[in-house]
Amino acid sequence: MHKKRRYRLLVVDDDQDILELLRYNLEKEGYKVKLVADSSKAITVVKEFDPDLIILDIMMPHPNGIELCRDIQKLSSFRDIYIFFLTAKSEGYYQQAALDTGGDDYIEKIMGLRALTNKVASVLRKKLIIRKSIPELRIGKLVINRRSQSVTINGIRYELSRPEFELLFFLAQNPGKEIGASQLLGSIWGSENYIVDGTVEMYIQNLTGKLGLNLIQRTTDYRYRFDPGSC
Q: I want to staple 8 with a disulfide (CB 3.0 to 4.6 A). Which of 51, 78, 92, 199 is the partner?
């Protein structure tokens, strides 16, 4: 019987203390972890290590994280690999640049390791999709635009709060999958403690009321499912 291959994570950061902290916590979760402190060597390591997911800092000597993400995207074998940014930079233009260049999520270091490990587990172990780099989703008459944070149905624009938008965007990328409140919280915000489960129910009710469609269905065990057939 073949032993199941452990998921491989590549972490690129020029701060050795951060690297060792990430190694300890990610290996504790059962992942095989490779660290790179010199970003100029990262592409070579990507090809050799064949990671399932890459975690990048932004502020590094040439190439910085944005440039490195762009270079990774040019490798045909890794065009669809998950790339998460973990950075101390909170300014909106850094986040937009990270997503525009192909990063799938942007996690501020101040949010802590729990946010990172929850999101990594969501995409690798729970097989959920977190791709904030997707500029727009079109499902039937529903259009969700990431850059403008707008939602339109039949060309009519609806105003959503940021949490409502994030919930809709995430669920729409995972149609038909039943996802519990805690799993939603971990996948979107990275921490079950950031927003309580009951608040998710409130946001779902608000979404349904604002959009006038039964896009998100709740099962009897308080799990949620996006129904593309309602669009």
A: 51
CA distance 63 to 48: 19
Beta bridge partners of 223: 180
Model confidence pLDDT, tens digit, residues 173-216? 999 999 998 889 889 888 645 556 578 888 889 998 998 878 89
DSSP 145: E
Domain boundaries, the chain: 8-124, 136-230
Work out the number of other CB atoms within 10 angstroms of the CB of residue 125.
12
Q: Which two tokens stand for residue 171?
A: 């669920």
Residue 63, Cβ density class (10 Å: 0-12 exposed, 13-18 middle, ≥19 buried): middle
DSSP 88-113: S---HHHHHHHHHTT-SEEEEGGG-H
- Average the pLDDT over 132-144 and give the result: 93
Is domain 136-230 classified as CATH 1.20.1290.10?
no
Q: Which is the CATH superfamily of the domain at 8-124?
A: Response regulator (3.40.50.2300)
Alpha-carbon span 159 to 211, nearest angstrom? 9
- Identify the residue whose tokens are 């989703």: 137
H-run or E-run covering 115: helix 113-124
> Strands of 156-158's sheet, edge to edge?
136-139, 142-145, 150-153, 156-158
Instruction: Calculate the alpha carbon distances from 68 to 39, 42, 119 in Å.
Output: 8, 8, 21
Greatest mean pLDDT range, 38-42, 89-93, 131-135: 38-42
Quick one: CA dihedral 62, 117, 22, 193, positive or negative?
positive
